[in-house]
Amino acid sequence: MELTIENPKNCKQFQILFQLLSSICNEVDIHFKKDKIFIQGMDTGHICLFELNLTKEWFKSYEVETTIICGVSLSVISKVLSCWKEGQIITICKTKEDKLDFYFEDNKISKCFEMSLFNFDNEMLSIPDIEYDVDVNLNSKLINSLISEMDSFGEVLEIHCNEDFINLKTKQNIHQTQVENKLKVADLESYSIIENGNILLDFSLQYLMNIVQFSRISKNVDIFISKDYPLKFVYSLGENDNVSIWISPRIE
């Protein structure tokens, strides 16, 4: 098994991806399939779940003859990838049963990291494909900025959606200060809601802070909201390449 990433933008995205995913959970199985890399992970509180899909076309070269599952520590991969420098090609290969190798190479240096693999008892979750009440696409840096500001003043975010606006309001406020931001739907990239929709849900700002940091890898984000399902974020890295993140609502 061997795959390479050469495009500077993709190399940087790959580095940031694993840094951010490691903030959600640590022990995951990487599924190297014939046509893509797939990772699913959930935090220890079972509040936040993610799935990463990177198709073979995303890579410069991709040679995987049969599915290989590697149990890894995301925090270790993040540390390894922190040693990558701009201009270096990333190569990932598996030549030993219990090792995964990372190479960073340019015309001056070749770095090699031999990382140990683990056997985790991770159970894959089947996530149904559902129709959400609200679909919104907006600038990822905008939602990052708003959530970052609100995180300084509250512990809970109330999201209220109707046909005219999306209202974000802090709850369990700090410094006796409440923050409220109203997004007019006419100013969003795209917005749709079920007829006469009126959605009101609460979410942990601490978890949302981890999610909105993915603005570093994608210009826009798709957000899906429903009364009866977790909030879903999708950050695109290509036509069929993305990271999807779900966060469960708070229940009083």
Characterize the structure shown.
The mean pLDDT is 96. The protein has a nine-stranded antiparallel β-sheet with strand order 6-2-3-4-18-17-16-10-14. It contains four helices and 18 strands. It starts with a strand and ends in a 5-residue tail after the last strand. By secondary structure, it is α+β, with helices and mostly antiparallel strands. It is elongated.
- Euclidean distance between termini CA atoms: 48 Å
Count of DSSP strands: 18
Shape: elongated
- Please describe the biggest sheet, giving its number of strands, its sense, and whether it closes into a barrel: 9 strands, antiparallel
What is the percentage of strand-forming residues? 35-45%
Number of helices: 4
SS-derived structural category = alpha+beta
Residues in helices, as a percent range:
10-25%
The Cα radius of gyration reads 20 Å
Uncertain stretches: none
**Strand/helix succession:** EHEEEEEHEEEEHEEEEEHEEE
Main-sheet strand order equals 6-2-3-4-18-17-16-10-14
How would you concisely characterize the structure shown here?
This protein is 17% helix and 43% strand. It is of the alpha+beta class and 252 residues long.
Spell out the blueprint of helices and strands.
Blueprint: E1 2-5, H1 8-21, E2 27-32, E3 36-42, E4 48-55, E5 61-63, E6 68-73, H2 74-81, E7 89-93, E8 99-105, E9 110-116, E10 134-139, H3 140-151, E11 154-161, E12 165-173, E13 180-184, E14 190-193, E15 199-204, H4 205-212, E16 220-225, E17 231-236, E18 242-247
Antiparallel strand pairs: 1-5, 1-7, 2-3, 2-6, 3-4, 4-18, 7-8, 8-9, 10-14, 10-16, 11-12, 11-15, 12-13, 16-17, 17-18
Helix pairs in contact: 1-2, 3-4
